[in-house]
Each structure stands twice: as structure tokens, then as C-alpha cells.
């Protein structure tokens, strides 16, 4: 009969190991970034004040690629996609949209230069819930979808290509991005500051309504909280760039007047509603949680076999 492999350590130390394993699995969550765009996207990451940085602050994501990052309990911060980037072999360079100004692939604590589509998270906030949103307050550069792994938690994002419908006065970077009215004009009524620095005086503009009609779950202006912030109990998240394929466009395509583009936003809203179910991503984004659970069971079974029958494990699983 083959001898049983010897696993060193007392039952007490083994129990501590198992508890540590479960604690590490429960406290943090996994963000998975997926690029479905036709070109490389360089995600940028900025941790909030008082929260630890993630393992990277920026990286390249080729078309079809995914990458997962672990975030500890209580983390807060934002993600965005950079496009039109050119970096040399040493990682030095810049991006046409969403550039963080670091001159490198890594953003190193710098945020996105507007315009940029932002995904914002606060983990384990009030009531122990995660808070998340996709914001167009700083403008738009790429379609983005945020999906919680937990059932019953809503997806959010901006699924359509707003660059196609961007008014001339908001266009930026040769049609690669669309500025917010605040950035374009700097007026207090658009920026919600000064006399307009509260929800009673700052109201949606024709420009924020254009964004909201196309992307009804996204923040369109500073006080758009009621329909744009979502919560979920502790879970993993997938952030997808270009969740549906968008046709390539000419940088010199003709632009239509703002009022016509605002009318077209009704069509964009219907496109979003009719296509939402088909664009639901059900790939392997929940794998990290499933993997941890399966591995925990395997570890417990192996350790139980090691310490039985002298030290039976009761109620381990």
C-alpha cells in the first residue's frame, strides 16, 4: 500500500492556514478587464485617497485580451481606457485620449485627462455594500460596460459610440473623444460650481441630456446620482471596453448640428435597450470566485485526510 504523503504542521497550524485562506478569499475582490475593441486599449487605474494602490496603475490590453487584478477590502478608485497610445520599448510615451500625463504606461497616481469614460468604485462602503458607476461627467472616449458577478446586481455603462453623435462644439482629438459641456465651455451652469454648486440650481443641459439619452445608466452631469449609482454586496466585477463591436469610422466624417444629434439620441436609447440582452457577457468572469471555493474544498479534504483519525475535523465545511 502506498504510504500517505506527510504534511508538516500541527492541527492548530493547519486550521490557521485554512482560516487565512478563507479570509483572503472573502476580504478582497477581483476586477477583470476585457478588451473587445478593434485596437489595443491601455487601462489606467487610480486609487482613492487613503486606499492602497493596486498591483499596477496602467497596462496594455490587446484586442480580445483579459487581465484580472485583486483589490483589497475597502478599496476605492477609478478605471478608464486610454486609446491611440504610442509607447517605446522602455514604456515611455503618451496617449491620444485618456492620457494620465505620466509619460509612461504606468500612470503612477495620476488621473485621466478629459475627455474619458470613467468606471468608479467604492468597495465595502456604507452598510458594507459596494458602490459603482460609469461616469461621463469628464466626457467620453470609449464604450464601457461594468458587470457585477453577483446575481441581481445591475450592469451599468455606456454601450454605444458617442463619438459618432458628438456635437461639433464638443468634439476632441480629431473625433476620438467627446468633451463634456463643462470642459468645452467652462460655465458654472455646466460645471455645477459657484452659484450652481448644488442640485437645486444645477440642472441637466441639452448636452448632458444627449449623453443621458444614449447611456441612461451613466452619470451625465455632477448631480445625476439617482439613476447612475448602483450598489451590490461584496462581489467580483468585469470591466469591458467596447462591449459590442462598433463599426470603424472616418476621422473626417461629416458632423451634424446639435439639435439633429439630440433627436438621434432617441434612436441610440432604443438601440441600447434592444441590444442589452444580446450584449450580456457571460464569459469566465466569475471564475476567480468559483476557483477559490473549489480550491478551498480540495485543501480541506486533503488536510482532513492528513489529520484523521486522531484529530477529526468537525464542521470544517
From TrEMBL:
Keyword Signal part of the UniProt annotation: yes
Keyword RNA-binding: no
SMART domains recorded: THN
Keywords: Signal
Annotated InterPro entries: Osmotin/thaumatin-like_sf (IPR037176), Thaumatin (IPR001938), Thaumatin_CS (IPR017949)
Signal peptide (residue range): 1-28
PANTHER family in the cross-refs: OS03G0233200 PROTEIN (PTHR31048)
Protein name: Pathogenesis-related thaumatin superfamily protein
Amino acid at each position: 500500500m502506498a504510504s500517505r504523503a506527510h504534511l508538516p504542521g500541527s492541527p492548530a497550524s493547519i486550521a490557521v492556514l485554512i482560516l487565512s485562506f478563507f479570509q483572503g478569499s472573502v476580504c478582497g475582490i477581483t476586477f477583470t478587464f476585457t478588451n473587445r475593441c478593434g485596437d489595443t486599449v491601455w487601462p489606467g487605474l487610480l486609487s482613492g485617497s487613503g486606499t492602497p494602490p493596486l498591483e499596477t496603475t496602467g497596462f496594455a490590453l490587446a484586442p480580445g485580451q483579459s487581465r484580472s487584478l485583486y483589490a483589497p477590502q475597502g478599496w476605492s478608485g477609478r478605471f478608464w481606457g486610454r486609446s491611440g497610445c504610442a509607447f517605446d520599448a522602455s514604456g515611455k510615451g503618451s496617449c491620444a485620449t485618456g492620457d494620465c500625463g505620466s509619460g509612461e504606461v504606468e500612470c503612477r497616481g495620476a488621473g485621466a485627462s478629459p475627455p474619458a469614460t470613467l468606471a468608479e468604485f467604492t468597495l465595502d462602503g456604507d452598510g458594507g455594500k459596494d458602490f459603482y458607476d460609469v461616469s461621463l461627467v469628464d466626457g467620453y472616449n470609449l464604450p464601457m460596460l461594468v458587470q457585477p458577478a453577483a446575481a441581481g446586481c445591475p450592469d451599468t455603462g455606456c454601450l454605444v459610440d458617442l463619438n459618432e453623435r458628438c456635437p461639433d462644439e464638443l468634439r476632441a482629438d480629431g473625433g476620438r473623444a467627446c468633451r463634456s459641456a463643462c470642459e468645452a465651455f467652462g460655465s458654472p451652469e455646466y460645471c455645477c460650481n459657484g452659484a450652481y454648486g448644488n442640485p437645486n440650481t444645477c440642472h441637466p443641459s441639452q448636452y448632458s441630456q444627449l449623453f443621458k439619452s444614449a447611456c441612461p445608466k451613466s452619470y451625465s452631469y455632477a448631480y445625476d446620482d439617482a439613476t447612475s449609482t448602483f450598489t451590490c454586496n461584496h462581489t467580483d466585477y468585469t470591466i469591458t471596453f467596447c462591449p459590442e463591436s462598433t463599426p470603424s469610422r472616418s476621422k473626417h466624417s461629416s458632423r451634424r448640428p446639435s439639435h439633429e444629434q439630440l433627436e438621434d439620441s432617441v434612436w441610440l436609447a432604443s438601440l441600447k435597450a434592444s441590444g442589452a440582452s444580446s450584449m450580456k457577457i457571460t464569459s469566465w468572469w466569475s471564475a476567480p470566485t468559483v476557483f477559490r471555493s473549489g480550491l478551498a474544498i480540495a485543501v480541506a479534504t486533503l488536510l482532513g485526510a492528513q489529520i484523521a483519525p486522531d484529530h477529526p475535523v468537525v464542521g470544517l465545511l
